[in-house]
Amino acid sequence: MIYADNAATTKMSEAAARTMTSVMNDVWGNPSSLYSHGQKAKETLEKAREEIAAVIGALPREIYFMSGGSEADNQAIRSAAELGRKNGKKHVVSTAFEHHAVLHTLERLEKEGFEVTLVDVHENGIVIPSEVEAAIRDDTCLVTVMYANNEIGTVQPIREIGEICRRKNVLFHTDAVQAVGHIPVNVADDGVDMLSASAHKFHGPKGVGFLYVRRGVRLLNLIEGGAQERGKRAGTENVAGVAAMAEALKESSSKMADNAARLTAVRDRLIEGLGKIPHSALNGDPSRRLPGNVNFCFEGIEGESLLLLLDDRGICASSGSACTSGALDPSHVLLAIGRVHDVAHGSLRLSIGEDLTDADADYIVRSVGEVVEYLRGFSPIWRDLTSGKREFIL
Ligand SMILES: *Cc1c(COP(=O)(O)O)cnc(C)c1O
To answer: For the whole model, what pTM was predicted?
Structure first.
């Protein structure tokens, strides 16, 4: 099997899995218990908090453990909105290609009387900082812009946006789920107030993540109960998951530069090969993108059929995000960068991992080329395109 869907989830690293089992077996006490068996679990938790904080340039007490990226996004946005509500500021700036954990939370806020401005992400999938600045108003309580897009991989000018938010005195949250562990992220340098991350996107376990919250920013508690996570996130901590997350993050950070160089080379090999397929186009900026992300549109085909036929050839890929594939709506990300419905339907996302070889990449290119040609063979849209009844867009 060739796994090229690392943006959906990654395989746990051996070290993370080892850490997880050893904590589950040996440090299974409740961190809130006062006897030493419980305190050992508390120490494991706090050591993980220190290690994670060190990787992203935060203080340990600025890290709040949560169930993953979705919860962290909800928590960050809800907290900023609550602060805004108290101060009579009910306006949020974001983009149309955020993850649904952000977009759906913003839709909820709109129902509660907030206004949301979505800045343009342009054809290349990159936000322009001055446009974020222009969207900020006196009543803006939050800017939330993702670090790197999960479908097209484009990396946003977070540092510039952070600088603007600081100058304008507006809270800045970034969904960094695709960035952390893959590209350098430093909360101090980037000037972010809140940052979401999820372990299963960097070879840690599923169901655990963290939210960085700059000290002084008041977090809302969405889950009532015990006093865990400084009273902000009740519930007995996922000690084994957190320890494994810290292990995975240390490992991916230490290998980051080497991995990125290798991945970028394989990514560009894929982009070059797939670009030779007639009437195809790369989605998102060719270079300002995650080292492992490739996303193409092929005119005249359905992405879903392409995926199923690639699966028959042992290739795991995606047509958009895992959350929307299965639904027949085209990707909101591709629509946001201006792809029309028909073209957006024929999309393919390959999010490659460190183990993908050049030979694997060549096999993918060959397979995609053959499958696209096969599907076009009985596509009515393709027939109309080639007979001139419809005009080619790509
Ligand atoms: C995967 C993902 C999430 C959701 O994270 P979970 O841990 O699966 O809840 C949020 N944002 C982005 C950009 C993602 O890629």
So the answer is: 0.97
